Amino acid sequence: MTKSNQKADDDPMSLAFVEAEAAAARGEAPIGAVLVDAKGLVLARSGNRTEGDSDPTAHAEMLVIRQAAALRGEPRLPDCVLYVTLEPCAMCAGAIAHARLRRLVFAAYDPKGGGVEHGARVFSRATCHHHPEVIGGVREGEAGALLKRFFAQLRNQDSKDE
Amino acid sequence: MTKSNQKADDDPMSLAFVEAEAAAARGEAPIGAVLVDAKGLVLARSGNRTEGDSDPTAHAEMLVIRQAAALRGEPRLPDCVLYVTLEPCAMCAGAIAHARLRRLVFAAYDPKGGGVEHGARVFSRATCHHHPEVIGGVREGEAGALLKRFFAQLRNQDSKDE
Predict the structure, then answer these.
(1) Which residues in B48-161 belong to E strands, given as ranges?
(2) Does the predicted TM-score (pTM) go above 0.90?
(3) How far off is chain A from B104, nearest CA to CA, in Å?
(4) Tens digit of each residue's pLDDT (9 = 90 or more) over B47-56
């Protein structure tokens, strides 16, 4: 294996991108998430499903947290790391704190909808009972391009529908 | 019917209290929620289920929003009003904004865990895309007493277990 190949396609963030692309193909916001345990084993992976599931809470992050907690049979996942293609919103940041996740790794920053580095800044509040390690901006350009492509297509579709 | 009887036991906040008591009886945090439509029809009612369902997102508010959205087959509920016995946390406030609820009515304020009037103050952020009408402090004393009783019992149980 050459050095350039060492970033395998099945690393968690790559899987999150696969989920984001699959969500876009379903007409959902193109956001994907993967939850791994302390050994890096993938416990859950999902894209957004708010429209398909008629569930305003069905963001990718919420779904993988719920899936992994159900799999484990416990509501707290303190050894786990969440990879997601976009900065989580306030709802998802709150869920990350409730689940006691060890680390959050996200790709694109979200100045409009984000609740970690923007807006509600959930983990930065004195009353927040859990502060995961946060790593933002991983493969940011790639995630931003995916989002831009999706919203440009949506605008094209809207103008065709008029 | 005398004037003092006009507050029926099946008004939404009373139902939320019934759900809170039922949650406490299951060993969950004693919080209950009810979601009603524009006509006051109850679409969903639930207490907290985080422990029983092994789901860190299973707060009463999340469960009634998810139930009602599934019932309607749509992820937004702009005509609906949420009644809950405690100020929602940041996660639940985010879900309320995503669901576009018309109004939030809560009982006790929660200086430690609340995300509406405390902490993240989700609806007060310039980036928050939806601001429901918020009415807090309804039957606050009753809700506070229920919470205090629950946590006192929990402490008693803990000291017996030691």
Answers:
(1) 81-86, 103-108, 133-135
(2) yes
(3) 16
(4) 999 999 999 9
